[in-house]
Predict the structure of Cupin.
Amino acid sequence: MGYRVVDVDSVEPEPDRPCECRKLSDPGGLDAAAINRFRAEPGEQLPLAYHYHETQEEAFYVLDGTLAVETPERTYEVPVDDLFVVDPESPQRAYNPADADGAVTVLAIGAPPASGDAAAYDPDGDE
């Protein structure tokens, strides 16, 4: 048996991200899943680009605010305490709209951990 408590605020944010991203998998000792906490101010997006994963399932649990998720079919608004799930090969871009009242905080979980399976997606069809 093993147990760990991770002080999320002690984990340094990743550099060069469009919003605050704290990667928690390594501090938590997780091998089978990726877990990140994102905090995006109005106008900031969570991922580096509109993308999809070849094998990874993703789940975004909204802790605070409202998350917008753009997909090829529509844009979803995900309120606090709701979960947005993305299947493999499903393009998406999560963000906090520029006209939002405040920041959005999201716990993102992906399994298996993305190890190079992310692919950029061009919504205009130039993948």
Observations:
- The beta strands are 20-23, 34-40, 51-53, 57-64, 67-70, 75-78, 83-86, 93-95, 104-111, 118-120.
- The chain is about 5% helix and 40% strand.
- The longest strand covers residues 57-64.
